[in-house]
Structures are given as structure tokens and as C-alpha cells.
Amino acid sequence: MDRNKIFFIFLFTIFSSNAQGLLDKKAKTFTHQDTLRGSITPERAWWDLLYYHLDIKVNTHDKSISGSNTVRYKVLKKHKKMQIDLQEPMKISKVIQDGKDLNFNREGNVFFIDLIEDQKVGETKEIVISYQGIPKEAIKPPWDGGITWKKDKNGKDFIASSCQGLGASVWWPCKDHMYDEVENMLISVNVPGNLTDVSNGRLQSLKKEKDGTKTYNWYVSNPINNYGVNINIGDYVNFSEKYKGEKGNLDCDYYVLRDNLVLAKEQFKDVPKMLKAFEYWFGPYPFYEDSYKLVEAPYLGMEHQSSVTYGNQYRNGYLGRDLSGTGWGLKFDFIIIHESGHEWFANNITYKDIADMWIHESFTNYSESLFLEYYYGKEAAAEYVIGCRKNIQNDIPIVGHYNVNNEGSGDMYPKGANMLHMIRQIINDDLKWRSILRGLNSTFYHQTVTSKQIEDYVNDQSGINFNRVFVQYLTTTQIPVLEYIFKDGFFDYHWTNCVAEFDMPVKVKLNGSEVWLKPTAEWKSEKITGDKINFEISKDFYVTSSDITE
């Protein structure tokens, strides 16, 4: 093929890549409500959230919730209007500050509260919000969340919350944006006398009320994101153990339905195994002060902080299935490993905007293969993460739209994990890779972050610029193609179907030898001996190749 033809192919591929990028980011329609939910509005920005006391009664007879939330905050700059979120059909009935009733008006799922007292910079203030209503019932939890109201097989109520994306304001009034986590929290839940509530943190007290109900008071001493706050109500029994971890003894408590105690004592043996592997890879469990709990729920499961919920039917795999198709996915209980992995990536390190949800799901999906590597070796781990590629859709980009509460493609799970797997290959230093994973969890300990912060940290600590790799795999649906030509003793190659300036190194087998190539979007040439070529890209790379030799 002559060089002029190669040049025109190059121009066409760059044009096609840019056009595909535009299609990937095609405009979506968002509403003012989306902006109120997803942006740091002026009515949010002026105050820093410090403490909640969520004090509620769960009424099983009519599926309603009533109670109050005390909100303590620090004034960052003067303002007289506060945004509190609470979704329809829930209603705020009263707001009090310093003994005075405050006026408020509703705009969809947002309440704007008019403050009477001067809000002096640096001052700590409180408001008490009273509310009630019948919250949205979850249709397909945890993906389409809300409150799940079910019965166990003995006819007793089995109730739980799940609300990532949808927002905690579906069932309680709060500052429902991820950028500002409450520093600590008291959760008081009143339930019928024959049931138990399990929420986040440690059980501080249990009060038996005169009407025969019980109030459980759970205290969370660490920062917690809104969707991580949960209620789990059922006919629970409890067993526990202590795990000897990097920061000493970690209290592990398990709450399961009465009839499942024997099953749980066997299946939950994955918990100490998980803790051992993940403390090795990621550093100490981030919430020793609040304990670790695994709580049976009437849905598949969710990463509620220090109160991880479980509904995987006491089976290995994902409801008994191996998502990788390799057999390795049946070596562990998917929900225990995946949802607990979120204690590091989601609850310790938390996205500021749900558009960057890959920070939670890509690292946690990859944690499944790291669990396998710890117990079964690198080959097993690689087979698993590579096997999960069959679930990639390449429908829309992984990164969503910012400031409108919009998450990207579900590819953030398998595709994001494979991106991290490739980055590890390029770093080519397992000790450094482990130090990066641990360093992320110590550097951003109990913090909310942006994608750029995570990307910059990986670049800085590895000494390699992965910017174009992140852009390629997070913001487009294109899979890079390594085009090559072998003619007259020369091997010509370049990346196509990629973003401008894409420069990811790739490991290949070239005539039986394993070598690293450093392709870019521009053609490169290597002198090759012999009259034929055997070429294969390492299976560790989520790319394709194309021989365009004529």
C-alpha cells in the first residue's frame, strides 16, 4: 500500500473518531428539576453539612414514614435561603430554627426554606424538619429504588431502603447532593415490637416504647453519603465475630432472617476472606469505628456504609451465575465481595457527581478479580476480568452528564474494570500498582472526589500519562483498533477508531517474541526479518487489530 493511501486512511479515521465522539455525547434533555438535584446550587453552597439526627417511625400498616431530621451545619457565607430535598409524595410539615417556625415553599422535589436569623460566617446552626408521607415503593430494587415492603415466609414484614441515583430524599429530607457528606449521624428508627431495625454504624441504644413498639438508635461516627444511609427491618437474628485486621479487631455483625441462620453461618465465611484480601490490596477497612455489618435484605444487595445489604440467596456467583463465563465467578459470593468492596470505593472514596460513578463501580468490579488473585493467582484473576468483557454493551459513554444527576453506561462495571486491568499491565509493576490502590484510599480517605483527581493520582504515582486512555475508555464507546501492514520487510502500525492523540502502549507477540509497541494515531514502522509475520495482541488489552495489507 502506498504512503499516500495510508495518509488518507489516517485522515478518515481521525474524522470518524471525532464524529463518533459527538454521537456518543449527543444532547439529552434535562429539566430544571435535574439541575436542582444534580448541581451545587447557591442555596446549597453557602452551608457545610455537619450532623443529622434522622428520627422516624416506620408504619407497616400503611407503608408510611413520619418523623423529623435535625440538620446541623456551619455557615460558609451569608445567605438567608436553604435548599432541602424531599421527593414527592413526601411532604415537609414544619421547619424550626431557634424556636421559630420558618416559612418554606416547594418546587417539585425541592423545598426552599427562608431563614429568619442572620447566618453569620463560621457559626454553627441547626434546623429541625418535620415530615411525613408514603415514600415511593421500589419497583426493581436496588436499580429502581425507594422502599421495599415485603413479607418473609412466616408472614412477618421485611422492609428495606435502597436509593442510589434516585436519592435519599425519596424517603427522608436532606441535602441530597454527593459533594457534601455529613460528618456523623444519629439514626433513630421506631418499628413494631416484633421486628428489628438495622441501620448504619453502631447500635447505641434500644428503647421499648409504651405502645409496644421499639426504637433503635444507631450512631455513625464517620462521614457518610446520603444514599449509604439505610433502614433494614425484619425478624432478624444476629451472630458476630471479630476480624483481626490492619487496625486491630474489627467487629463483624451479621443480621439475617430467622430461618436462614444456618445458611448464613456457612455462606458468610466469605467475609473474613474478603477483608483479608481487600485490606491487602486497598489498605485498612475504612470504618473500624462503625464496625462491619452484613444484613439480609429483600432485594439483591447494596453497599450501604457499615451496613452492607445482602440478597444473593446464599449462593456463590451472581444468583448462582458466573458473570465471566470462566468458572472463576463461582468461587465466591458475588454480593459479599462486590458490595463490600464498595466500602473502599464508594463509601471511603466517593464521587462528587454521579457522572463519575465509574470511580465506584470500575474499581469495585475490578476488586472481584483482585479477590481471585489473592486466593487463586494472577492467571485466574485475568481470566475472570477478561471473561467479563462479554457483558460490555458500548452503548453510551461511561461518564455521564455533569450537574444533572446523570450516570453513564453500565459498562462502568466490566469495561471500567478492563481499563484498570490494562493500566496495570502498562505500569508493569505489581508492587507499584498495589501502592497506588492503597494510596488512593489513604490520600482520599473519607473524601468526595472528581474523576480528574483519581486520574491525576494514577498518572502521578505511576509516572505514566494515561490521560488519553481515560478519555478513550470513559468518554467514548469506541474500541481502539491497531491497524497494521506487513510489506517489503516493514511492519507499519497505528491506532485507529480512537480519540485524537491516543497513545496507549500495547503488549503483542510478534513472530513468537513478546514485545511492547508504542503506537499512536500516526503510522510507525519497524523493520522485520523474514517474509511473513505472526502477530497477536495480548489478551490483557481490550482492543482489536486489523491487517490491512494488500
Would you give an account of this structure?
By secondary structure, the protein is of the alpha+beta class. It has an eight-stranded mixed β-sheet with strand order 5-4-8-2-1-11-14-13. Strands 16-17-18-20-19 form a five-stranded mixed β-sheet, with helices on one face. A four-stranded antiparallel β-sheet has the order 9-10-15-12, with no helix packed on it. Helix 7 (358-376) runs antiparallel to helix 8, helix 7 packs across helix 9 (414-427) and helix 10 packs antiparallel against helix 11 (451-462).
Identify the notable features of this structure and list them briefly.
12 helices, eight-stranded mixed β-sheet, 25% helix, 550 residues, alpha+beta, five-stranded mixed β-sheet, globular, disordered N terminus
Strand content: 25-35%
Mean pLDDT: 95
Note poorly predicted spans. Answer: 1-25
* Strand order within the widest beta sheet: 5-4-8-2-1-11-14-13
Radius of gyration of CA atoms, rounded to a whole number = 26 Å
Largest sheet: 8 strands, mixed
Shape: globular
DSSP E strands, number: 29
How widely separated are the two ends?
6 Å
Helix proportion: 25-40%
Enumerate how many helices there are, as a single number.
12
Subunit arrangement of the protein = single chain
Q: Helix/strand-derived class?
A: alpha+beta
